[in-house]
Amino acid sequence: MGAYEALAASYDRLTNDVDYGATVAFYREILTAEGLRPRTAVDLACGTGTVSILLAQQGLQVIGVDMSEEMLTVAQQKAGDMDNPPRFVCQHLQKLVLPRGVDLAVCALDSLDYITAPNDCAEAIRRVYRALNPGGIFIFDVNTPEKLRAMDGQVFLDEDDDVYCVWRGEFDEKTNICSYGMDLFQRQGRLWRRSFEEHREYAYSAEQLTGYLKAAGFTNIRVYGDRRMAPPRSGEQRIYFKARKGRIR
Fold first, then answer.
1. pTM above 0.90, yes or no
2. Domains of the chain from N-terminus onward
């Protein structure tokens, strides 16, 4: 089963410890430092739409993009009663085409790492550049190679009363990919439904991603520590990037 097919229905419950509000607040901190007040945004690999909804609640016109129809179905349901709901679109990031330019592009929770072919990652970044209005900004985060390598052989468990998820990480030095097989048990009445998904993340270095950003045309590139307006520390588990698209002169 592909990533997020079965997981979509339980994703929000299994990630209720993720502080999406702090992530969006960090975006705002970067935007303030850059002197930007965007009106439009795209939330790349938006999943169940939590970041899209938070941005829309702040008054932005938001497009949420994800490759998983199952995750987008949940996102659409969550946003159904909003006065300013995001618009959700099913696309792969390396094939991203938006109906209009946007001022802000964000990509949260190491979603770029899920693009396991470097050429596809570089193409996705090029597509983001094209989707931004002149002067627009791209903010995203990734897991560091140190974190993904450390997951090798580690077993993780998430559960609540109606869902039980156990997964084990394996890092392949030859492919530079961390794979984790996920056994998911979801309660359905008196019975439990078992499913299996495999998730894979490529261990992109900061230098590699900076190179892709420069090649796409981005400038004013900066790398931050985990939700800190400062360079990454040694051994940082997650890092953030911001990059700007130049204005037309």
1. yes
2. 7-145+203-244 (3.40.50.150), 147-201 (2.20.25.110)
Which residue in 118, 68, 121, 60 sits closest to 87, CA to CA? 60
Query: Which residues, at least 6 apart from 170, have a Cβ–Cβ distance to it below 8 Å?
Result: 152, 153, 178, 179, 180
Q: What is the dihedral of CA 108, 164, 178, 201, to 10 degrees?
A: -30
pLDDT per residue as tens digits for the range 98-135:
999 999 999 999 999 999 999 999 999 999 999 999 99
- Sign of the alpha-carbon torsion through 8, 13, 17, 21: positive
176: phi then psi, degrees, rounded to nearest 5:
65, 35
Closest CA to 126 of 22, 36, 243, 231: 243
Q: Give the distance from CA 59 to its chain's centroid.
A: 21
Burial of 31: CB neighbours in 10 Å, binned 0-12, 13-18, 19+:
middle
Residue among 3, 132, 9, 1 nearest 66 (CA):
3
